[in-house]
Amino acid sequence: MKIDNLILFQKMYDFSLWLIPHTEKFPKSQRFALAKSVNDITINVLTAIVNMNFEKNNIEKEKKIDSLNLEIDKLRILLRLSKDLKYISIKQYEYAELKLDEVGKITGGFRKGDKS
pTM for the whole thing? Predict the structure, then answer.
């Protein structure tokens, strides 16, 4: 993996290690709905990073970056919903948003780098 992509992958991986145990604490009624969706999208983001890393074609790589950004936005929405439903605390939500912002900035840098 390229070093920038490794940093991106590591940040998302570390965030996943923090997030997934928190979803296990969601109410039982939401573990197979909201928690599963959060976990699935988190894993989708990780795999999208790996897929993006192996793409050589700039147009295809741009599509993969767009797809990655879409998954990150979906995760943001689900985390906001989790906060509003009080499944995660405001402090946990703020931490999650901070980490997702870091991931988003790195992917934004890839997009700018591919256009030059």
Answer: 0.87
